[in-house]
Structure formats: C-alpha cells, structure tokens
Amino acid sequence: MSKITFNELERIMSYSVVKNKTCIEIDFYIDGCVEYSSSWLGKVIDNDTDEASYWFGLTEDGLQAYDFNSFEEFTNAKVFKGKSLKDIWHLVSLYSIDGFNVQERLPFYSSENS
Predict the structure, then answer these.
(1) Domain chopping of the chain, boundaries
(2) How many CB atoms within 10 Å of residue 60?
(3) N or C of the chain: less Cβ packing under 10 Å?
(4) More confident position, 81 or 63
C-alpha cells in the first residue's frame, strides 16, 4: 500500500486518455474505514460526449458510483460521508495504479511524454 501526494494525483489525472484505448484506474482504500476498503477512481473518455469523465466506484455493490465532468468537480464532491476527496486525501492509500504497483507506475505519469 502506498501514499502519493495530491499533486501527484493531479499529475496522473491530467494525463490525456484516448477514447477506447486508455483509461486511468486507481484502486484505493481509506485508512481505518471498512466501507471504503476497496474503492476505485479514474478517468476515461465518455463515449457520448468525447470529453474526459472522472469517476468513483466506492463500493463493490455499485451503489456508490459517481461520474464528474471536471477534475475540480471530482475532487470537491462530498461523496465520502459528507467529505470530499480533497478533505480526506491524507487518509487515502493506494493498492495500485492501472493494475500495477504504485511505485512502478508513478514514473509513467511523471514522464515528459504524459
């Protein structure tokens, strides 16, 4: 399990994804919170609008799934029991980024090509 800074998250989520070719998926949990022990967030191109869509899949039952049109809206939405991702970022730990080890994948999003 790894922690990254909010600036690193911003860098990852600013990466240009390509419709039907790439997406960003981060598997995470909230420290000490059973409800959010296996949650997901990411970015993909919306098939209908061709615009970036930022999303959360917070619970396995799919009842807490949310989509947003901007990174700002995504990080400020109060989807964590009345708190936003920005509010709780210090409690977020990552299992993986795009299915890879966090420390191995992080340089990909820090490279000049992203």
Answers:
(1) 6-109
(2) 11
(3) N
(4) 81
- How far apart CA 50 and CA 105 sit, in angstroms, is 26
For residue 96, the SS3 value is strand
Q: Summarize pLDDT for 20-74 with one digit per residue, the tens.
A: 678 999 999 999 999 989 999 999 988 888 899 999 989 888 788 999 999 999 9
Distance CA(93)–CA(62), nearest Å, equals: 21
CA distances in angstroms from 95 to 38, 59, 105, listed in the order given:
9, 15, 12
How far is residue 38 CA from its own chain's centroid?
12
- 6-109 in CATH: which number? 2.20.140
> To which residue do tokens 């990174």 refer?
71
- The neighbour count for residue 76, using CB atoms within 10 Å, is 14
